[in-house]
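Something for you to look into today, if you have time. Could you write out one complete protein record for me, on any chain you like? Leave the record below and I will have a look.
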Amino acid sequence: MAIYVLSTNQNVIIKSRLRTFIFSDTIIIFSLSDEDQDLLAMLVFSSELFKNSLHSCVPLRGGIAHGNFFFNFDKSLFLGKALVCAYSLGEGAQWYGITVDEEIFRRANKIPFQTPQKEPGIIEWEIPLKSGKQEKRYVVNWPCIFKNNFAKKIESAEEFYSPFKRLFGEFKDLKAYDRKKHENTLEFIEKIYK
């Protein structure tokens, strides 16, 4: 079965362009070539995965980087600068979303990768980091991409967290670190909607 997505007036067949591998709590997604359609497939698939995960109350952070990536499925070996960069971009963030490197941002703007409202699909944002600092980085503009999925405006981090409660307990009982991820994510949503 192929997944078809209508974007920039072209049908993009995602299945034939991407490969995935899952281990533990990590999903590796990579393309087999370096064409614009591969990047578009990666961005669309990653965005859909993110949306579906949030809908299922599985919070995700992700990173997308451009570069060489080597793999051996038989031995479950994966390596390359792009893998290390993508891991660092995703894991270093103190929020739920997808961070991309500068090359992905540059190439996505040329495709162009846009929201349904014709806004950029990747934007620059002052991203909160685990270190407590903030740094300007490029991120997938998921609140705009999936704007129609919001039933109403979310008023607080606790309200944003409420669907997760059945899996992770009460918001007030979370570690401060985990509460902050929800607060930072809500701040991102609010900045996008202003």
About this structure: Residues 1-10 have pLDDT under 50 and may be disordered.
